[in-house]
Design brief:
Blueprint lengths: L7 H8 L16 H4 L16 H16 L3 H13 L4 H10 L2 H7 L6 H9 L3 E3 L2 E2 L12 E4 L12 H5 L8 E4 L4 E4 L14 H7 L1
Antiparallel strand pairs: 1-2, 1-3, 3-5, 4-5
Helix pairs in contact: 3-9, 4-5, 5-9, 6-7
Length: 206
Amino acid sequence: MARYIGPTCKLCRREGVKLFLEGERCYTKKCAVERRAYAPGQHGQGRSKATEYALHLREKQKVRRIYGVLEAQFIRYFEYADAKKGVTGEILMQTLERRLDNVVYRLGFARSRSEARQLVRHGHILVNGKKTDIPSYLVEEGEVIAVRAESKNQPMFQGLQEFLSKYKAPVWLELDVENLQGKVDHLPARSEIDVDVQEHLIVEFY
C-alpha cells in the first residue's frame, strides 16, 4: 500500500501544531514547529485567513496524518463510523485509536506511530499469542498485545523495560512491563483519547 515518505516535520508545520510524528525529537528544540511556526512553501508566511471549508479540511488532514492513514482508507473508517449507532465523530476516533500500530505506540513499545507500524509489519508483535503483521488490525476488548519472545533481544527493544517502568499507558490499556505486553481493558471513550481535534468538523466535511 502507498505511504507518505516525505519529510514528516513539514506535515506538522502545514497543520500548525505538533503531530508528534518524530517521537522524542518533537519534545526538543529541534522540533520544526518550534523553529518555524508557519506553513512550508514560498507563501507559507503570507497565507490569508482560512475559509470555513479550509478549517474543516485541515482538521481532517490533521487526524489523517496523526494516525498515518491515506485518504481512501480514512474514508472507509468514516463510512464504518457513520454506519454504526452513536456519535459518528467519537466512533471514528475510537476506531482509529483501535488500530494495532496505534495500540503498540500507546503501550510504549515504539516512540512514534510510524515506528510502531514498522514493528508490526516486520512481525515483532503478537495478538493473543499469534503473529499479526497488519498495522490496521482493529483490536478488541480483552485482547493481549505483546512483543514476540524472539524479538525481545533485538536492538530496538534494548532498554525498553527501563523506559516503560516510567511510562504511563492510557487508562483503557493494561501494561505488563516485565513481560512486554499489554491488554485492552476496554475500548477507549472519546474522553480517554488525548488527540486534540474537533471531530465534528470532520463529520461536517464529509
